[in-house]
Batch of 2 targets.
Target 1
Amino acid sequence: MVILSCAGRPAADRLPRLMPDVRVRFAPSPTGFLHIGGARTALFNFLYARHTGGTFVLRIEDTDETRHVEEAVQVILDGLRWLGLDWDEGPEKGGAHGPYFQSQRKDIYRRYVQRLIESGAAYEFEDKEKGGTVVKFRMTREPITVPDLICGNVTRPLNDTEMADPDFVIVRRDGVPVFHLVNVVDDIEMKITHVIRGEDHLSNTPKHIALYRALGAEMPKFAHIPLILNSDGSKMSKSDKGAALHEYMNAGYVPEAVRNFLSLLGWSPKGDVEILSLAETVERFDLAQVQRHNARFDHDKLHWMQGQYMLKMAPDRFNAMARSFLAKTGLTAGQPDDYVLRVLGLVKEKVKLFTELPEWTTYFFRDDFTADREVIVKTFGSAPQSWELLEKLRSRYADLGEWTHPALDAALRALAQESGVKAAALIHPCRVAVSGKAGGPSLFHLLEVLGRDRVLNRLATARERLKLD
RNA sequence: GACCCUGUCGUCUAGUCAGGCCUAGGACUCCGGGUUUUCAUCCCGGCAACACGGGUUCGAAUCCCGUCGGGGUCGCCA
């Protein structure tokens, strides 16, 4: 098999086919953070494994021991778990094909290198210039064709610099085997059937194929997925904003939204659907619909998708996540649980990102809030009589029997009518006076939650607080 | 420099492999209108693309060639 085609297949063929022998892997290097592109590669591997009923292996590529930090591994595991991508074999899970850290597989690599040397496919080489002895692999001079499930048959001849010296190093001067070797060896040992990885590896794949041949091992199927670019089309490197998954974790994104957004970068479920649960994505996912060209990261669309998930989020989960974010800001320290919960109930439909929470809720927890000059001018600038109305409203509210939103509503409207103004002429000044904001939750619900003491107090001090000078 | 991948609205994409069903569909953004006591949401409407140039064909976004653009690889990094 060489190329999969997606259109025109019989309908029955579109149903998920169980291929329990499928084994895919995500093999990140512990660099201290999880790149968003890496996360997407992991996602595609995961989706393919779940779609086919196969196995998803996680392997840590820490050949360069100086870089192997326990903490750096944890970042990867946390990121994958956050996205909901649980692996079947790997760190903290074990499995029949371990160990899953390359730093613990040195004997295996040594054996394979020995085999290559004995068969004449590799040889020791003394580098006179750099000094030391390395092991080099005798690379084929002929062009090699990569059968790729996404790109088709890609034939790559050696380029000019490779032509000058086709053989490449597989064991460094310090005795540590390089990526190309360990990657292939591990995929053979772990019985990987499908190598799904970033397109940046496509040009190196002929080297890997040559290694498989020299080792007499069966080649896996390759699927090189397009890369994720910055929104301006430039390459997304580690230092770019939004390149690391933890930025989204910290910024208050819902994991499902990020996962959903990522799945649509370079893959399409067809049929004009965009909001898909993990289960729906698993059911529809296939390599045949993966795009061939790179995709730009569109922050606006992610933000929109985040809003969609936020809106649908169950209140309990929203409250739990919101409280943990709020706790970090110290805003809710010492506040009664019950009050915090009522505030959250009020702003749930407004908040799109958890990091926006302080903006929406600060005035519920602190009395020293201010208002933008622009808001004050717009509300009171052309209507100085609002101050007197607010005074009157305060005395009505002071005498209010029960402090409920219908009662607050009725009292305000009655006053407006008696004063010959529209309700809105009272509602807006009141909102600004008690919250300092031009927008927010329904005013009467807001007043109800704020409570009589706070409202009366703020109404009394509004003129002083919102003074323009 | 060489080699490889790639090119549909500003962005993500459907349509391309089996040429006509495409006066090119959806979504995000933006603009206009409506709902809402405000803001956000939501609803309705609108702007906007087949990179360019040749061919093949009755007919091309779809097939072929070239050009240009974008990305990748060529490490004793992974």
Target 2
Amino acid sequence: MTRYTESIRASLRDRVLDAAYGLVADAGWGGLRMAHVAERAGVSRQTCYTEFGSKDALGQALVMREVDRFLDGIREVLDGHGSDLRAGVTAGVEFTLRTAADNELLKAVITSQRGGDGELMAHLTTRSEPLLDTATAMLGAYAAHAWPEVDEYSRELAVECVVRLTVSNIVQPVASPEATAERIARIVTRVALLAEPE
Amino acid sequence: MTRYTESIRASLRDRVLDAAYGLVADAGWGGLRMAHVAERAGVSRQTCYTEFGSKDALGQALVMREVDRFLDGIREVLDGHGSDLRAGVTAGVEFTLRTAADNELLKAVITSQRGGDGELMAHLTTRSEPLLDTATAMLGAYAAHAWPEVDEYSRELAVECVVRLTVSNIVQPVASPEATAERIARIVTRVALLAEPE
DNA sequence: CGCTTGACACTATTAGAGATTTTGTCTAGT
DNA sequence: ACTAGACAAAATCTCTAATAGTGTCAAGCG
């Protein structure tokens, strides 16, 4: 398989996945028809099957793509803020809140929401459950790099706070993403920077 | 209506509610039959209707009782720890985690979980939504009393942390209630006690 | 009175048969 | 490498009849 064919195929996969994403957003996973996906992607139904194998497999590929994109986004945001952990956290949290707000699918994955329109998740043992673990690990590594002077236990505490508070604010938002991110970063800074009292 | 009749009636209501609680736990709200409730409570079906009016009304009464009991429990736990906020928070969180663990109904209310076996909540505008708000307010008042030297903003931050982290750990537990409560109290202490850096 | 019992209409839930879609595969054609 | 059409098998919808449950009434009992 040549390089060229590979890139063609990749763009084809992406077109199909894009179509699927839009249709799932409109009608939910249950209302998704392979025929519609094919049509919207400008491709034959058969091609979808040869490329993905089955509707379920297409679903898996879809959430895997979304998850990977999200994780890449987080990585990018974090890397873009060098050693300023506070700024990194603020930006990362805001990015996550915004993503969850306008990507129903990722919101469902992040909050581990079952049932509802996201019947999609019903059978996704793959890279969807470990999402939060991966994000936590990434944030932990970033924290270790950006705040080497903080002891490990405090860093752990802080990272757990970021993740849990962020998810909490996705499920039950009270303010804008900016304001919330700012607030969470503030909390987390305190958790990390205060040595154990008493 | 005499005092005596009142207490008789109250105990009758309680017996019926107890029966309903057990049956809901077994079969879910959807699987609950008024006839079974009456039978288990040792009461006629008609009595249930004269007392509560309808199945839905009985459901409301049930969750209201559970919510009130929970709130009373929190109040008691908090009051039992005088001015030691840290101890109070630890005990309160542990109480909440334990309650959620063995009271499916309250767990559903606390986490605002919709659908599932708790189809009960589908139509409860009453004292179920404000639960977290009430608990938050109680904790806030308690904090103001136990930690007067901490500025209000820091207290707000800390209270929000307790509530959100507790709910988060109900939804996704990683350790025992004791360990988790201890951890949350530690985090919250840091949030409250650290003056704003930079 | 306060409760039980049995009877009742009305409504919601369930079960099954049949029609209709959709999935997933195959084959021939471009 | 993809499209197009045809197809069996499986899933989903639809409608009907039967069943079960809710909510109300009136009669009876201590």
